[in-house]
Specification:
Blueprint lengths: L7 H6 L7 E4 L3 E5 L7 E7 L6 H7 L2 H17 L7 E4 L15 E5 L13
Antiparallel strand pairs: 1-2, 2-3, 3-5, 4-5
The protein binds guanosine-5'-monophosphate.
Guanosine-5'-monophosphate binds next to loops.
Amino acid sequence: MAYDDSNIFAKILRGEIPCDKVYEDEYALAFRDINPQTPTHVLVIPKGAYVSFDDFSEQASGEEIVGFVRAAGKVARDLGLVAPGYRALANHGADAHQEVPHFHLHLFGGKDLGRMIKPLEK
Ligand code: 5GP
């Protein structure tokens, strides 16, 4: 899937749309989700143009990947999520209901998040 630079996160990166920024460096931007699912719900996105985790993991340079992961970990620490715990999650594609085609890592925290995913019915 080709990257479409009209997506909402590309517009946020270009400063065309505002966001509630919590962190920025040369590799990543982190901002609060507009429709939070948990008391703390932050999105961390790479500065580069990658559609999803699949695209990022295959095409990004080692420097970009390390920079992004370091940034995401720092955001979680800075938000005080390490001691209580948090969830980092990336949706890719239709089965995961990815809405925005610019790779993003969700950081969820601020409450007991329960099980990771609903178990299959037996
Ligand atoms: P996805 O389903 O693609 O993994 O998640 C996309 C996330 O982006 C959703 O949680 C949604 O609430 C969030 N989102 C969509 N549009 C905007 C926006 O304009 N600003 C912010 N801050 N979050 C957005």
